[in-house]
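Input structure tokens:
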């Protein structure tokens, strides 16, 4: 349903990509523009849906769940490989038999039972290229969901909250006087401030190996958000990720951590990941949806949000 709906919405863009459409540039000159699919900003579950890949695999590589902890990336999902796998699944089973077709795809193929991806006839669109790293969901959320849990499991939530609460408040930096161990969600600003403070807070309570792993993962996240990434920066990213996987855990089979192996390839193909983050759109969700609704009569939520967006 998702791919069918998106195909209807973007039909004019596909036609423009094929035939071109005249548009004026900032200087007023008329140009023939082909609207190719360059980028699709999405979190991990949506990336699986867009790439037509089962959640047991990486959305941009052939890596399976049991291989997520490996330090060498697997071959990438390319446009042709995904479509060939879909065709092979359709040859073995009738897609109209939804239940059987879905079971076949999950058992023998990586595609998640999608028959016609919306990007299949959109020029040279390839999920390997247009699915770029998202700093908010892949790095900030990873740090909060995993690294924070490691800290809480090692030193305890009460101890972490106590150490954060006694810090001297700084202007321009978030301050958690009630602690952070019981929070379920943070804003993008709070995620960044937490990474600046957490290493200092846990110093003395972590073993050297665990502290080194946490520092390396934190360094990777900050380096990956650089506006300019040179060869030396990419090498530092690789080294930080290698050190980050030398921690005390038994395995690192974490989907979001596996995606970090492909940051270098994405940087070389699409530029700095900082420009592709979903921070702006997530912020617009607050300013354009939640805040106006709180000022309304709290009736007909979806209708009121759509009317506000149309203004």
């Amino acid at each position: 349903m998702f791919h069918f709906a998106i195909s209807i919405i973007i039909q004019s863009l596909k036609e423009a990509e094929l035939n071109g459409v005249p548009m004026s540039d900032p200087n007023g000159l008329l140009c023939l523009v082909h609207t190719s699919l360059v980028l699709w900003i999405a979190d991990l579950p949506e990336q699986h849906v867009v790439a037509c890949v089962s959640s047991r695999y990486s959305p941009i590589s052939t890596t399976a769940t049991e291989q997520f902890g490996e330090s060498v990336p697997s071959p990438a999902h390319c446009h042709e490989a995904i479509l060939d796998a879909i065709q092979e699944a359709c040859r073995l089973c009738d897609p109209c038999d939804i239940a059987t077709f879905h079971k076949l795809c999950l058992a023998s193929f990586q595609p998640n039972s999608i028959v016609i991806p919306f990007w299949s006839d959109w020029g040279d669109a390839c999920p390997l290229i247009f699915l770029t790293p998202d700093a908010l969901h892949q790095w900030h959320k990873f740090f909060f969901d995993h690294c924070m849990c490691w800290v809480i499991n090692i030193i305890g939530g009460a101890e972490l909250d106590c150490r954060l609460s006694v810090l001297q408040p700084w202007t321009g930096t978030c301050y958690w006087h009630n602690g952070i161990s019981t929070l379920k969600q943070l804003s993008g600003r709070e995620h960044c401030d937490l990474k600046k403070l957490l290493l200092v807070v846990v110093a003395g309570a972590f073993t050297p190996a665990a502290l080194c792993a946490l520092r390396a993962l934190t360094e990777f996240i900050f380096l990956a958000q650089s506006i300019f990434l040179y060869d030396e920066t990419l090498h530092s990213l690789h080294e930080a990720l290698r050190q980050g996987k030398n921690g005390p855990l038994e395995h690192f089979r974490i989907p979001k951590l596996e995606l970090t192996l492909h940051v270098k390839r994405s940087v070389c193909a699409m530029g700095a990941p900082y420009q592709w983050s979903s921070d702006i759109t997530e912020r617009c969700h607050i300013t354009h949806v939640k805040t106006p609704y709180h000022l309304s009569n709290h009736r007909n939520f979806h209708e009121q949000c759509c009317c506000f967006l149309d203004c």
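The chain has 15 helices and two strands. The chain has a mean pLDDT of 83.
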